[in-house]
Amino acid sequence: MKVAVLDIKGKETGRKADLSDDVFAIEPNEHAIYLDVKQYLARQRQGTHKAKERAEIAGSTRKIKKQKGTGTARAGSIKSPIFRGGGRIFGPRPKDYTQKLNKNVKRLARKSALSLKSKEKALVVVEDFNFDAPKTKDFMAFLSSLGLENKKSLIVLGGINNNVYLSSRNLERSEVVINSELSTYKIVNANSIVLTESSLEGIESNLKK
Asked: Rounded to an integer, what distance in angstroms lies between the CA atom of residue 148 and that of residue 175?
């Protein structure tokens, strides 16, 4: 599949990038996308929620009243869950929410997500670029040239570029990642994907394994 390569000003360079049909033009598997996104979101949960139960409450274990003759229910401890300040019954405990997913399914999910974006014409290829210094203004001008200033965008670089990354860090709707950090969730969550020429080789080599 051939796609026109744009420059930093959004104009065609006259060159075309050859995108692999095995990565960018497969029949999307929506269930694989669902499983991978579900796993990604589950891994974001810390699972550190915790409520103190009866045995963990600070307080005396003295029997607060005699067993019989009071006319009320028996009570053995002030830490009982039925009293104010007592332990919580069946409260939340720390839990590991991570889920296991076969790496072949994850690979299929990423290819499916990229193929969906390709079908939706939401995939743009630009030549490699850099900024002289970290400036949000320069990055905003780059997004405006592609018509993405008001859209969620994901820019994929071929390698670490601090100037580009720092220029985008203040923008809520835009994210910059390198090809090895590309995930199904980030692809699906963005309205448009911007791929640099140098990122294509890494993406295709990672997903063709």
From this structure: 12
